[in-house]
Amino acid sequence: MEAYKKYNKRKNFISKNGGNTPRKMCIVGKSNLDLNDSIFKDFYSDKKHIEMLSEIARENIHEINFENEKYVINVLKEKGDTHGWHLDDYTYALVLVNRSPHINNGGSLEYVSHVNFDGASKLDVESLENILRNSVVNSVYIPNNNIYLMKTNTTLHRVSPLQTLDFRMSTTLSYATKQDLLLVENHKSIVDLYE
């Protein structure tokens, strides 16, 4: 929470790489988290932690090669705040929901599983609309202090808009497969969010 109070930056734009969906949120990037505390850095790179995640994922996972996306904090706090629809550049995200809004106030994880989409880093409007029209959109409310591992490069997802003033904070740690690391040039979809 201290890093959020010191370093948060307000973002409010339409993401061209996310099907022209909104990003209305506050963020704290890796560089500022490193200034405040080394806990994220130590946890992110811990060998036993990575081995455990690999066991859960049933494949070897690795640290990603894009520094700014390794770990970040995202906060929704104003009515209409949302982290719009997207697929992540890297295969896995470990997400800790530090604080959740009231269950009726929005801020739920919404997702479509098993999305096969070429060029996931540039999800255009037509592709997004087609996926949402022809798929089941799942929604799950995640209470405070819960953690989940998601295969985020094939799971279309968003955090639904807050319906009123409230507060949702999550910490996301991104991890790669070996294949991800070979596609380093493709991993640029979040530059407008975390730089």
Report on the architecture of this protein.
The protein has 195 residues and is of the alpha+beta class. 25% of the residues lie in helices and 32% in strands. The protein is built from seven helices and eleven strands. Strands 1, 2, 3, 4, 5, 6, 7, 8, 9, 10 and 11 form an eleven-stranded antiparallel beta sheet that branches. A hairpin with a 5-residue loop joins strand 1 (9-15) and strand 2 (21-28). The protein is globular and about 40 Å long. The mean pLDDT is 90.
CATH superfamily: q2cbj1_9rhob like domain
The helix-and-strand class reads: alpha+beta
The CATH architecture classification is: Sandwich
Cα-based radius of gyration, to the nearest Å: 16 Å
Helix fraction, binned, reads 25-40%
Main β-sheet: number of strands, strand sense, barrel status?
Answer: 11 strands, antiparallel
Residue fraction in strands: 25-35%
Would you state the CATH class?
Mainly Beta
Based on DSSP secondary structure assignment, what is the total number of beta strands? 11
For the termini, the CA-CA separation is: 20 Å
Point out poorly predicted stretches.
Answer: none
In short:
The chain is of the alpha+beta class and 195 residues long. It has helices spanning 2-7, 30-36, 39-45, 47-57, 125-133, 178-182, 191-194; strands at residues 9-15, 21-28, 62-63, 71-76, 82-86, 92-99, 109-112, 138-140, 146-151, 156-159, 168-176.
